[in-house]
């Protein structure tokens, strides 16, 4: 991701770094503001949670995502969140709820509008975004609810990944009898904010069935969901193709923009 950032323009947006949404070192977020917008018109906001298997990642590595979306006129917020082994599930999801709460309550101070906040994520970040959209207990802790969020976008997310195979994941998600709570698919009731699930069919890291299964379950419950499959993309490409040097026909970014602009 560092290489992608080096190839991304530094103009076109203003970065406000390290706004604290909690007391811990990793409970900070960066705000990216589009440079060329009407100051009298509130902007839509995208909160993006990066991936990294719940044990790695940094908001500093995702400038390319911020540029991709600020160039479309959105405010972009990229939070850090605590990682394994400092914490285990559900602490990183709780951090996500704290970050979203901060955005809902403060984004108007930066030209945004609380009524137009989309949460998004790639891989482990999509898992966090999905749980915040489907399991109301996380946002309820901070006096909010999933429908306070306008929409959710998941890129190559793990939503239905039991049983766990690796010892590391077993440590992250705790005792077997409690692991079901980590699965977004178990919290589908049909009342979720509209969701766009995007998946690359060459993904061998997070199998496409995660997105297919979740979309199917939401549709069965008459919830709002759209599933978009990219036949030629793998797991990393599902986020790296947002970077300006790799956009090509720009299908990934344009699909996201079209979805956000529905609301």
Automatic annotation (TrEMBL):
GO MF term set: hydrolase activity
Record-annotated BD-FAE-like domain positions: 29-217
Gene3D superfamilies hit by this protein: alpha/beta hydrolase
Protein keywords: Hydrolase
Protein name per Swiss-Prot or TrEMBL: Alpha/beta hydrolase
Annotated source species: Methylophaga marina
Pfam families associated with the record: BD-FAE
UniProt xrefs under InterPro entries: AB_hydrolase_fold, BD-FAE-like_dom, GDXG_lipolytic_enzyme
Signal peptide: none
